[in-house]
Design brief:
Length: about 290
């Protein structure tokens, strides 16, 4: 593993070199044990004393490498393993086997160190303090990430302007609309200037104008050199924001390459990314 990354401390201003592999995943597996309850009363009682289980392979030998500054779309049907992958990369879950490295460390072994250098936003889960003004959530996260006063104010002001949330800073989170909360949460995700950001369905349930604002913001962050790993069922998000796509199905990688390469594989050179992915699934008899 890259020793420069292993020894690099938390830096809010620096970015990894474009040649550096910031995410390395090798033969990653994650298996879940699901308890079987039984159907009738007698069987349920029997299973209580003598439980039986079935095993689910959420991830089955997943491998990929992502270099600094790349924007990658992670595509899959429900239950394909997208969220499980992100949770392992963020250190929330421990893999069953395989190797995973984010910015030179194993996420589940160094959760605090990993969390300080990445950003994570998952669907409609919020970092906002429900009954307090949005500004208080920013102040709290600034202290949690131990940002200097100058860095905190510079990052906050840049994000407030970029996501147009200045009028919302003194509003309690519970009074915000879904689109407003999402923009505020996205700003909080980028507050500590993370080198790598994981986004799981960041535009779910949003109207077209809110989605456009978020897409424009992510494109700007991409130009700043942030590595973006974006999982979404809204393939318009991925088509606009990402250059590379990874298709996962039942825990296994089916395709890893550029959008143009995927179109060549399916022979759909003029179609949208959504049309191309649908054709890929139909030809592979997965849909």
């Amino acid at each position: 593993m890259n020793s420069a990354l292993m020894n690099r401390g938390l830096s809010h201003a620096s970015r990894p070199d474009e040649r550096d592999p910031v995410i390395v995943v090798e033969e990653l597996t994650r298996h879940y044990r699901v308890r079987l309850d039984g159907e009738g009363f007698v069987e349920k009682v029997s299973r209580f004393f003598k439980p039986r289980y079935r095993y689910v392979k959420a991830l089955d030998g997943v491998s990929f490498t992502i270099r600094a500054g790349e924007s990658v779309g992670y595509i899959g049907l429900n239950g394909a393993g997208k969220s499980t992958t992100i949770k392992i990369l963020c250190g929330v879950l421990v893999p069953t086997s395989g190797k995973v490295s984010v910015l030179g460390v194993e996420p589940f072994r160094h959760r605090t160190r990993n969390a300080r250098r990445i950003g994570l936003m998952m669907g409609q889960r919020t970092q906002l303090l429900w009954d307090l003004p949005v500004r208080e959530s920013f102040d709290l996260l600034g202290r949690i990430y131990d940002l200097s006063r100058e860095t905190y104010r510079a990052n906050r002001d840049r994000l407030v302007e970029a996501l147009d949330i200045g009028d919302l800073m003194d509003t309690p989170a519970r009074m915000l609309s879904l689109g407003q909360k999402t923009r505020c949460d996205l700003a909080l995700t980028f507050l500590h200037d993370p080198a790598v950001v994981f986004l799981d369905e960041p535009t779910i349930g949003l109207d077209i104008l809110a989605r456009e604002k978020i897409r424009d913001f992510l494109k700007a962050e991409k130009k700043r050199g942030v590595t973006i790993f974006l999982a979404s069922h809204d393939l318009d998000d991925l088509e606009i924001v990402t250059d590379r796509v990874i298709l996962i199905h039942r825990g296994r990688i089916l395709f890893d390459g550029s959008q143009e390469e995927l179109r060549r594989v399916t022979g759909d050179s003029l179609g949208t990314l959504e049309d191309t992915v649908k054709r890929f699934y139909r030809e592979a008899e997965l849909g």
